[in-house]
User: What shape does this take?
Amino acid sequence: MTSDGNGTKVILNAAAGMYRQAARDLLAMSGTDLTREGGIGLVFNNVLDVSTLDDPGTPTHQAFIELVDGLGEAAAELSVVLFRGETAELGVCVSSENPESGVKFNWSGTMLGAIDPRRRITGVNIAPGMAIIALRERGFRANGISSVRKALALRFGEEWWNNPEAMEYIKMAAEPSVLYDQLLQHLNGWYTGEFEQIITAHSIIHLSGGAFEGKLGKDILFPRGLSAELDNLWEPPEIMQLCAEWRGMDDEGCYKTWNGGQGALAVISPDDSDFFLRESERFGIEAQVCGEITERDEPIVRIQSSFSGAEITYSPN
Assistant: This one.
């Protein structure tokens, strides 16, 4: 069982008028943390706190109808049951950076699923020479959005949501998360009659701010004395590059705050790489080999940045 939410990306959804897509962020944040351990999401409960639902027929009320309709569509895509939900009008307890916004909300949820101990992904068998696959992400997912909003304010003014020149970029920043769960669950054997792994994923890292250093390095590789060389990462989305420019962020700051263009990494045998990439394409997900697991005297994670080409190195210390 995993719980998460959309964070402050809801402000971007409201500013862009992109309500139907917001549920993809909610399910990506709540479900992929279960999938990365080899599990499968089955039942989802959500909590939608709003300032006001307003009266039926108003733009605010219609926005929340689109929000929940989008949740139904995304859940159907993932074959997840929407079992329970709680919606509460909390007035001033739910606010927004944009005081004029009629649609103010917080959205979170809990995914209940199943894990087969035989196919649980723990990272225990990671070894030098294994390939690292990067699954492409076209936006920010729901991480580092406070920094995105700061970038918009620096470029378009403190009331960036009211600047017509900003709308194109607000919509780009509100791009919904890519859902990787069906692909990864398929490869882990959940949809085969025998429930046997099609490919053994030795580790899956759900990327968010600081994940290259923290989730890949400190959580997985460094305790095992292993390293990683990542020299073929996806190019960051255009809006991510622009936000970095507007904020004056260096490459290390970008990878510490955002995903850099990949929402997840998978560590697999190099013999399985071609099949993994073909299956990714079949599921409509862009993937590429971005590096490999190595072994050194002192463990590191070394990244060749796709922002500027700079080299970034993380170590246990």
